[in-house]
Amino acid sequence: MGLAEKRTAESIKTEKLPAFEAKLKDKAGYDIKVDINWDTFTAYDQYPLSRLDIVFDDLESFVKKICSDDMGKEALQDKMSTIQLTNSDNNDDVKMELKDKTLALTVQLVQGSFSSQTDSQIANYVEALL
């Protein structure tokens, strides 16, 4: 990881991430911690870090869909308190799992391709488990 990646990651940690978690709290009615495996995002270059905005938008939209009413908010709060993000350079690693109150998402934000779960895919997966 070079200086540019370190600066970008630090900016996300101190500015974008707190604002994103505040948006999630606003939509869900409770705190949702976002845990980013920084080593998997900064191991390449700045490009995967710049794509985190897309992932954040999909996650915010997913939470909004589930938490459209009190029933959804309560159900999500019972099952999820953390979102864990991991990046991979292998498209076959892209997956999602809700376990132990953690929604673990592995995305592929490196190279020329881009693969992550859409808001609807995440909402459909999680809603089925609530």
Set out the fold topology.
Elements: H1 3-28, E1 33-36, H2 38-42, H3 46-50, H4 52-66, H5 70-79, E2 82-87, E3 95-99, E4 102-107, H6 119-129
Parallel strand pairs: 1-2, 2-4
Antiparallel strand pairs: 3-4
Question: Can you describe what's shown?
Answer:
The protein has 6 helices and 4 strands; from the N terminus they run H-E-H-H-H-H-E-E-E-H. With 130 residues, it is an alpha/beta fold. The chain has one domain. A hairpin with a 2-residue loop joins strand 3 and strand 4. Helix 1 packs parallel to helix 4 and helix 4 packs across helix 6. The longest helix has 26 residues. It is globular. The N and C termini lie far apart (39 Å). The model has no long low-confidence stretch (mean pLDDT 92).
Strand content: 15-25%
Strand order of the largest sheet: 1-2-4-3
Overall mean confidence score, pLDDT? 92
| Structural class estimated from helices and strands | alpha/beta
Order of helices and strands: HEHHHHEEEH
Essential attributes:
four-stranded mixed beta sheet, 55% helix, 4 strands, single chain, alpha/beta, 130 residues
Quick recap:
The chain has 6 helices and 4 strands, in the order αβααααβββα. With 130 residues, the chain is α/β, with parallel strands linked by helices. Strands 1-2-4-3 form a 4-stranded mixed beta sheet.
